């Protein structure tokens, strides 16, 4: 005869253990979902998506039963701008995934940041699918090429930004060079003026020195002449004296 009382205890233990694990797992998933929902979003609010949805579900004006339908061209333009923003977010996610994964493996960032990134990645994927469906709803087959057009628009915008930055930098470099050239010219002209002043001072002092030398020569030349004349006079006087004797 089977001892049910003896088997009830192990079954009860297993049941309690399984129930505890299930309860813990459920609470853990709920807590994790709540913590993920409370995390700060990776990207800011999607303004282009909000604009498109506002145009798509435009509310009627006061006093009107139905809202004025928005033209398809306006909706397509709004959806294309939304796709452009999605392309920018896809590029941002792709460029940040590998560095962030490396930092997470090294322990440089916490798990909360990684959870924020994973949630942003899932949101971007859902957003891409939604844009494809909206594009196909507006025009059949447009969902296959809308992101190609958006990618070209984003690339053109990036190129224009780089060209604008290059032109601004070139203007700043030009202004710096004009200022530097003016300083160099002013310093060069100042050096030339100083050189002319020093040259004029040297020439003036040089003109004074030859005059003093000529005067010295004249003085020295006058000495022998005067002595010669004096000797001549003395000689005549001696002759006169000798004749008288």
TrEMBL record:
Name of the featured protein: Translocation protein S66
Biased composition (Basic residues): 236-245
Coiled-coil regions listed: none
PANTHER family: TRANSLOCATION PROTEIN SEC66
Top-level taxonomic group: Eukaryota
Entry GO CC: Sec62/Sec63 complex
Keyword Hydrolase: no
Stretches the record annotates as Disordered: 188-245
Record's keyword terms, sorted: Membrane, Transmembrane, Transmembrane helix
InterPro entries: Sec66
Biased composition (Gly residues): 220-235
Name of the gene encoding the protein in the UniProt record: sec66
GO BP terms, alphabetized: post-translational protein targeting to membrane, translocation
Segments passing through the bilayer: 6-28
């Amino acid at each position: 005869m089977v001892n049910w009382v003896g088997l009830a205890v192990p079954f009860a233990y297993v049941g309690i253990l399984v129930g505890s694990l299930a309860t813990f797992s459920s609470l853990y998933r709920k807590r994790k979902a709540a913590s993920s929902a409370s995390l700060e979003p990776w990207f800011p609010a999607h303004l282009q998506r909000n604009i498109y949805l506002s145009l798509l579900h435009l509310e009627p004006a006061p006093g009107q039963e139905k809202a004025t339908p928005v033209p398809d061209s306006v909706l397509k333009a709004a959806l294309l701008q939304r796709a452009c923003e999605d392309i920018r977010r896809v590029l941002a996610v792709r460029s940040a995934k590998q560095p962030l994964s490396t930092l997470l493996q090294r322990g440089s960032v916490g798990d909360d940041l990684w959870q924020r990134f994973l949630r942003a990645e899932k949101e971007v994927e859902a957003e891409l699918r939604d844009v494809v469906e909206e594009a196909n709803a507006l025009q059949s087959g447009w969902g296959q090429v809308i992101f190609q057009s958006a990618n070209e628009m984003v690339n053109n915008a990036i190129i224009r930004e780089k060209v604008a930055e290059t032109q601004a930098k070139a203007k700043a470099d030009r202004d710096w060079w004009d200022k530097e050239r003016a300083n160099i010219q002013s310093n060069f002209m100042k050096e030339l003026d100083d050189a002319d002043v020093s040259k004029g001072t040297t020439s003036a002092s040089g003109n004074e020195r030859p005059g003093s030398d000529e005067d010295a020569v004249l003085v020295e030349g006058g000495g022998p002449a005067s002595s010669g004349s004096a000797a001549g006079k003395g000689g005549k006087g001696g002759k006169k004296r000798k004749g008288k004797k």
